[in-house]
Amino acid sequence: MAVETHGVPQLELEAVIGFNGHVSSGLRVHPDKEHLIYPLGCTVILKRIKDGKQEFLHGHTNNVSCISVSKSGLYIASGQVNFMGFKATVIIWDYAQRTIYAQLLLHKAKVEALAFSPNDKYLVSLGGQDDGSIVIWNIETQQAICGSAASAHSAGHCLTVQYSNTNDNIFVSAGSGTLRVWELDLPNRKIRPTECQTGKLKRIVKCIEVSEDDQFVFCGTTSGDILKINMKTGLLSDCGPIKTKYSLGVNAIRILKSGDLLVGSGSGTFTLCSKNKFKTLKEVQLEKGVTSIAIRGEGQQFFVGTEAAQMYRFSHVDFKAELISTSHNSAVKDVAICFGISELFATCSEEDIRLWHIDKPKELLRITVPNMTCNSLDFMADGHSIISAWNDGKIRVFAPESGQLMLIIHNAHRMGVTAIAGTRNCKRIVSGGGEGQVRVWELQLRGHRLLETMKEHKATVACIKIKSDDKECVTASSDGACIIWDIVRFVSLQMVIANTLFRTVCYHPEEYQIITSGTDRKVVYWDVYDGSAIRELEGSQSGAINGLHISHDGKHFVTGGDDKLVKVWDYTEGVVTHIGIAHGGSITSVEICSNNRTLVSTSADGAILRWRFPHPSSS
């Protein structure tokens, strides 16, 4: 990748919509009280609370799995996952410079949790279940001091670590059937554990919080109760709530200055409970499980992150949830920008279609179809409807203002609808399915009519584009063929074949050429009339190309794929003019808006990125 991106100007990233809500305690507030810190794919994002301005820390090679911020705010640490057998990096970032301060490499496959010592002297890191070790690092020398197996052989995996609030030499680790207080013996370079006694209680601890004076450790368990352990003696001093446990376990705990606890559960309840007896004082129900709670300043305000990739803001006084950011919590399958008005764009993923405002990336509308996945979507040219292809074999048409279902075509395709496009006159829809059929539908005032089924593809239809005169269309399929159809007489006019699984196809605005791309990593220009290959470009050095779009003036096109790079190409020269590096997952689709100002790309980690398009229209 370093060779590929060398010397090519970078695209300017304008905004990112996305938050990985599955990272435990991934959402943090920096001690300067001005910034939120959270992970998305391989990136750590710093977002200014006041105006939402984002900055990005790039350096990880795979998804970020944990985040910690030092008490002074000088450093941020983040750990990642990696493939089996490879080492997973811990990066310490210099917060003021926004640069990498140190890269620490010891753990195998995954870094599970990180914690800074109270005076920024040490960092403790915990490896995942394939690693199972705890390592103490000296931040100044950037070297490992010592390490140890995280839990005894008889116990289960260790899941989390937390440092003492006053002593640089003491930290706590916990997990499945294990709860230990560790002491660092620096002269002998050893860490020595003391097992905490919980008596007959057998618990899996998911999160730990140490009280400010270091007297007690509060542990949230998967059974839905909280253990209160005396840190000096290692004995259980309290356990609760006794009657109504937290549904689906306790995922996050924070202690307020008053000593009361903020508790987030796996079922999405966010609770303020008393320090003794853990009695519920206030409670709010959020969407999906709470995974992080971050306190701003003295605790007047706190931020909560959930598995639904949503962030909420609470004030301590009224304890009301204010939704401040939403994003997809699973892979984004497709993006469509409204034709003519480049202010709206829509994305689809599992269970929902979302409509966004392009300038201030904000969710305007969410259309949910439970337990179904939307594979592809498009705006009709008049902007009055969104047509969408679903894996249950149905085509659904929605109104973009209200999200109301205007039309549903049942059994449109046998193995799910995989591609869809609408004609310019807004009277027809062309759809493709998992079984390889291409169907043309006529939209009527009160319903629809199937005009024709065209069977030539042998496998999934991946992409459909319609010519501007509505008389022809081109379909790309994973059987290695691209077919140009006459959709007036319903016959195939031309077929181009390549040794690849085609993922995407585009008409050049002049419509005498098409360009295709797919798993062979090549971008090929074809002649529409005789089906001959005109030019072949090496689109990527690694991984398939999943998305491709040509600008409306036909001078440039953009590609994105499994190499996680957004590339802008000059159409006639066939060279890369700009590269965008920011995606943490495979890019699933790319689109340039009709006025050549913005470029939107989506990826498999649920992120939507907005870039400044580097070649604005000359008109």
UniProtKB/TrEMBL annotation:
<dbReference type="InterPro" id="IPR001680">
    <property type="entry name" value="WD40_rpt"/>
</dbReference>
<keyword id="KW-0493">Microtubule</keyword>
<dbReference type="Pfam" id="PF23409">
    <property type="entry name" value="Beta-prop_EML"/>
</dbReference>
<feature type="repeat" description="WD">
    <location>
        <begin position="410"/>
        <end position="444"/>
    </location>
</feature>
<comment type="subunit">
    <text>Microtubule inner protein component of sperm flagellar doublet microtubules. Interacts with BRCA2. Interacts with the CCT chaperonin complex. Interacts with HSP70. Interacts with AK8. Interacts with CFAP45. Interacts with DNAI1. Interacts with IQDC.</text>
</comment>
<comment type="function">
    <text>Microtubule inner protein (MIP) part of the dynein-decorated doublet microtubules (DMTs) in cilia axoneme. Important for proper ciliary and flagellar beating. May act in cooperation with CFAP45 and axonemal dynein subunit DNAH11. May play a role in cell growth and/or survival.</text>
</comment>
<feature type="repeat" description="WD">
    <location>
        <begin position="580"/>
        <end position="619"/>
    </location>
</feature>
<dbReference type="GO" id="GO:0005874">
    <property type="term" value="C:microtubule"/>
</dbReference>
<feature type="repeat" description="WD">
    <location>
        <begin position="104"/>
        <end position="147"/>
    </location>
</feature>
<keyword id="KW-0677">Repeat</keyword>
<keyword id="KW-0853">WD repeat</keyword>
<dbReference type="GO" id="GO:0005930">
    <property type="term" value="C:axoneme"/>
</dbReference>
<dbReference type="Pfam" id="PF00400">
    <property type="entry name" value="WD40"/>
</dbReference>
<keyword id="KW-0969">Cilium</keyword>
<protein>
    <recommendedName>
        <fullName>Cilia- and flagella-associated protein 52</fullName>
    </recommendedName>
</protein>
<feature type="repeat" description="WD">
    <location>
        <begin position="454"/>
        <end position="487"/>
    </location>
</feature>
<keyword id="KW-0282">Flagellum</keyword>
<keyword id="KW-0966">Cell projection</keyword>
<dbReference type="InterPro" id="IPR036322">
    <property type="entry name" value="WD40_repeat_dom_sf"/>
</dbReference>
<dbReference type="InterPro" id="IPR050630">
    <property type="entry name" value="WD_repeat_EMAP"/>
</dbReference>
<feature type="domain" description="EML-like first beta-propeller">
    <location>
        <begin position="53"/>
        <end position="310"/>
    </location>
</feature>
<dbReference type="InterPro" id="IPR019775">
    <property type="entry name" value="WD40_repeat_CS"/>
</dbReference>
<keyword id="KW-0963">Cytoplasm</keyword>
<dbReference type="InterPro" id="IPR055439">
    <property type="entry name" value="Beta-prop_EML_1st"/>
</dbReference>
<dbReference type="InterPro" id="IPR011047">
    <property type="entry name" value="Quinoprotein_ADH-like_sf"/>
</dbReference>
<feature type="repeat" description="WD">
    <location>
        <begin position="504"/>
        <end position="536"/>
    </location>
</feature>
<feature type="repeat" description="WD">
    <location>
        <begin position="538"/>
        <end position="579"/>
    </location>
</feature>
<comment type="similarity">
    <text>Belongs to the CFAP52 family.</text>
</comment>
<dbReference type="InterPro" id="IPR015943">
    <property type="entry name" value="WD40/YVTN_repeat-like_dom_sf"/>
</dbReference>
